[in-house]
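Quick question about two entries, pasted in order.
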Amino acid sequence: MVKFFIETFGCTANVSASELMSYLLLECGFEKTANRERADFVILNTCVVKAPTENKIKDQIIKLAKRYPLIIAGCLPQVMSDWCKVNIPKAALIGVDHFYKICQAADALMNEQEFSSISRKREFSQETKRVRARDLTGIIEISKGCTGECAYCIVRIAKGPLVSKSPDLILNEASTALKEGCQEIWLTAQDTASYGIDIKKTLPDIVKRISDLPGDFMIRIGMMNADYALQFLPEIKEMFKLPKVYSFIHLPLQSGSDNVLTKMKRKYSVKEYLFLIEELRKIKNLTISTDVITGLPGETEEDFNQTKELLERIQFDIVNISKYGDRKGTVASKSREKIPTEIVKERSIIITKLVRKMTLERNEKWIGWQGDALALRIDERNNTILLRNKYYKLISVDNPSLDLGKWYRVKIEKARKTRLIGSITSVPE
């Protein structure tokens, strides 16, 4: 039997796509292996959101092409097909809209035939089953593409304009995941808040319909942009009050300077973002995650200081920090206001130190908390169990005998920058 190995880079949507491809290949008679050395061909599901990631993937592709037949899937072949054709002419290419063609690509590859499918396609695969990366987590991509025009972003070029998945298909995927034992449903998109604007639906509506499905499970809402979140703010606040919805929001800030936000072509102001945060903080114990980019072309020292001050003012629970890097085809890459690399790096270091202190202090406020948390997976590095509470706090418990997929009463005893350390006080009846 022909064996395949798959490696995934990038976002949660890419993980979902790899889960779909794995399932389809098994249905077509191929065999999956976790050992690349035993594979007859290798699939790399790629990401190009950051230059270091792109370069890492390209280096790996060149090395692997000398040993294995390759299928290159995802964003890299979508936006850099010419590079692929020059450097790996024998590889099969699958763009972001054609993951469902994986069996055709594999057959062509094994028969040493050319295969490239990178055209735009609005429709989603109707297949609801997956080979899941985590047994208890069902990932559903509710839309692809976006309505944004961010000056620095190559993902919008790769993913194209917004296309929302039909509510029926989303509900079918959720039902399948729950029937297969998932305890979490993750809803992912480039911007979950913009879900449905092209089909006259809304994110709160589809979340409510998923939460009405039978079973004891939790829903995680993926990244949303402030401009659309503001449009549906009352409904979004009610959505997070649903018992089955994690009190967690990922709301990119990117910069605390209106000057930089304008250069980025973000569609909100600092004042609007602050209003949104103030309203969301009315939700009990809402965990707020954000993204920040340092060193966008034209970012002054004053702009950077405004970002630093805003981070200190808001006190986020999680902050993802990125150093600006040119992405081919974007508006920012053509700017004549480039900032020296050493300054970009220095600003990133300053923000990183600030964030480490902030997130630790935020987590330390949870020491002494007691409540229920869902056991989800084993941390194989130290053989502990990782749980999440309603507020999406990651809790590590040194009790490997716990049953995954069950709720436990937990007491928080210590805090780290990225997790809480707890102990079990009682078990389910």
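Here is the second entry:
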Amino acid sequence: MKIALSTGGGDAPGLNAVIRAAVLSAVSRGWEVCGIKRGFAGLLGEDEVIALDERSVRGIAHLGGTILRTTNRGNPFSYPRKREDGSTVEVDRSDELIANADALGIHAIISIGGDGSLGIAKRLHDKGVRIVCVPKTIDNDISGTITTFGFDTAVNTALEAIDKLHTTAESHDRVMVMEVMGRNAGFIALHSGLAGTADVILIPEIPYDIDRVCDKIVARDRVGKKFSIVVIAEGAFPKGGRESIRGASLPGEAKRLGGVCEELAMVIQQKTGKECRSLTLGHLQRGGQPTGYDRLLAARFGGAAIKAVEDEQWGTMLALQSPHIVTLPLDEVLREPKRVEPNHDIVLTARAIGISFGD
């Protein structure tokens, strides 16, 4: 048995812990393991395929990032290729990928990635590739699993920032607007905002009214609470408006969300007269050592992925359905993305203690 591991999409704390657990679990069965560099680029001649063994994964569980590197522009069904005139065209290289995998004697692939990688895996499975998936995203927006590794670390990074913003905001009687990642899901903003006792939390699932946001800030000011903390997800938008796009995307890359906090801070300052500052955490949320929870979850996913390969559960994704790790068909997982439910108990708790969602 020879298996290959691939990490695709944005990086997340815990990827190396998955790789380590999968490699050691496979080696204990007498299997051969290799790693495909930069998503699937290593199988397309754009990078390399490397051998993985016990020595390769020694001392990596606590490290952020991925030793296999990653990319969010590596869809083999729509792979960017430069023409002689310098322009870029997207081509289908999936047959080439499958042929190269067969030539290397790869029996099965474990793909570790988010919704984009899961969609690619489903299409490869439909073409006969034996593939098992491990869900990876700091956004926690993959259906079927209670949580994904990397999410807890991202929330803790955001929480640490909120804690620090409280002291400077209170010292200067300022409004601090902090933008966190999450794309079209508000889980990071919701969890970190509630844990960090933010005053306003704005998420994509609950479009906000800027006047309601300002009402909350002014109401605090009237009762002597001269500062406010606003946490906003990068994909949040006002009622009747749309999400904020930051710059141009590269060929094969999804649109880049972000920049919403600067505009929001400016409007709040204009409407309330309060001094307002903004902060975008950005890729800090992807970096650094994974928390203990994420390391444990990642290790469980890595070991369970090898078991799924052993059981020939092709075209499936591992999922945490507490307290167990289960396998789910990719068709089911991809049916719809996971989003914050506006009536979830976390939202209701936040409302009950006075946090505004701008609605």
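Reply: The chain has two domains: 2-149+290-322, 153-287+341-352. The chain has ten helices and 13 strands. Hope that helps.
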